[in-house]
Amino acid sequence: MPIATINPTTGETVEQFEPHDAAEVERRLTQAATAAAALKHTTYAQRAAWMRSAADVLEGEAHQAAAMLTLEMGKTLVAARGEVDKCVHAMRFYADNAQKFLADSPVDDPSAIGASSARLVWQPIGVVLAVMPWNFPLWQVMRFAAPALTAGNSGVLKHASNVPRAALYLDTLFERGGFPVGSFRALLIPSADVENVIKDPRIRAVTLTGSEPAGRSVAGTAGQQVKKTVLELGGSDPFIVMPSADLDAASTTAVRARMQNNGQSCVAAKRFIVHTDVYDDFVQRFVAKVGKLVVGDPMQDSTDVGPLATEGGRRDIEVLVDDARDKGAQVLAGGSAPDGPGWFYTPTVLAGLTDDMRIVQEEAFGPVASVYRVADREEAARVANQTTFGLSSAVWSEDDEDQEYFVQELQAGGVFLNGMTVSSPELAFGGVKNSGYGRELTFAGIREFCNLKSVWKA
Ligand code: NAP
């Protein structure tokens, strides 16, 4: 895949980038290792001050940064502004909380272990490699970078090949806030070169957000090298609607939960699992609201859904929908790509799904919703849990017993009751099953790449 900015709204190549050669990669890794050694000896207060300054820089450039995202991967400008704001919030959150999350914990009764005192101490581990996707080009990176840098690590970024401008923007952002040179370095390299970077002894751990095949490959190499990984992979999140739900609110949120980011979010609701008592009513409202979405130029504030980020991504969606239709699925809305330039796909709703259809098991990474009719909450949980994924979930019900049942039964890293999945630094983010392992955000995210050292004193 070329490293290039290609505008998905028009299909035009805006800028091509030469990949970094071996000498440049070496120079950047050396910088990152030098920065990690220096950061280890800085205080939380110093790193927090640099992170706050970097947040101020980003906030001051919010409009330009958002426009860069829209140009490179097609999310609406409104969504891109929201992404930038969220990054600024996370940077300030870790500036405020890193020291608290990584505070020493004294052992309550050291005499029980023959010590006069004992404590647990969190320390940074060095240079961490982040392999990141294009769908939230700033946010995905920031949820790693803000905790990693405030903890005293340095970061090296291999970003997706279709968002090089975002990669280069992040390459300088932290230095502009005051962090030492090399605290965060982007490598413009193809995915085939990632293996060598993981093997480099200066890299201490790897975090990857992306597809399952990429996760398997990166974790395989890291495992051979005995290096820790965090994997944030795909999802096919359920959105369950029970009879007591407020159907108007549920159907409105369902549209947003599925179509946000032009349908390209790992935690988008992808499968709508609806109790038979309210199935017809919910589906009618949902399909009507999907039909009203404005598809078009993502730079316009009136646009709800822009293009898919890549031509290949749209092809994958077309293949999934065609497979379901060919095997008998009903297409209640959309179901095709509109004529004209750009990689648009009409928001789509599929029903009447059977187990032989690929979309029942696979992730639809585009504006395509599947609806399922179920008889009771046991069947709802069974359908929800029937994929190999387990990222997040949403449940609409006013019934306390329903809510508690699904909180217990859903195989997922999150359950959002009468709402939709969102990521924010206050909550943990991550999945179970083939959606990956490890957690980002909150106290858990900053501890993933630290050494928990036991200190025992006679
Ligand atoms: P992708 O193809 O896996 O790419 C993600 C990153 O991995 C890119 O930087 C890519 O580089 C790199 N990569 C791909 N194959 C690799 C390999 N064999 N070895 C090393 N690096 C490799 O995923 P995507 O299409 O960009 O993103 C969509 C997927 O990400 C979806 O499955 C989505 O659900 C998932 N996702 C998960 C989360 C989460 O938090 N759980 C969040 C967002 C997205 P190139 O671009 O150069 O190929």
CATH superfamily of the largest domain: Aldehyde Dehydrogenase, Chain A, domain 1
Query: What Rg is obtained from the alpha carbons, in whole angstroms?
Result: 23 Å
- Please report the distance between the alpha carbons of the first and last residues: 58 Å
| Average pLDDT over all residues | 98
How many distinct domains? Answer: 2
Q: What features would you describe in this structure?
A:
With 458 residues, this protein is of the alpha/beta class. It has 2 domains: 4-232 and 434-457, Aldehyde Dehydrogenase, Chain A, domain 1 (3-Layer(aba) Sandwich); 237-422, Aldehyde Dehydrogenase, Chain A, domain 2. 42% of the residues lie in helices and 19% in strands. It contains 15 helices and 18 strands. The chain has a 7-stranded mixed sheet with strand order 12-13-14-11-10-15-16, with helices on both faces. It has a 6-stranded mixed sheet with strand order 7-6-5-8-9-17, with helices on both faces. Helix 14 links the parallel strand 15 (394-396) and strand 16 (416-417). The chain is globular. The mean pLDDT is 98. NADP nicotinamide-adenine-dinucleotide phosphate binds next to helix 8.
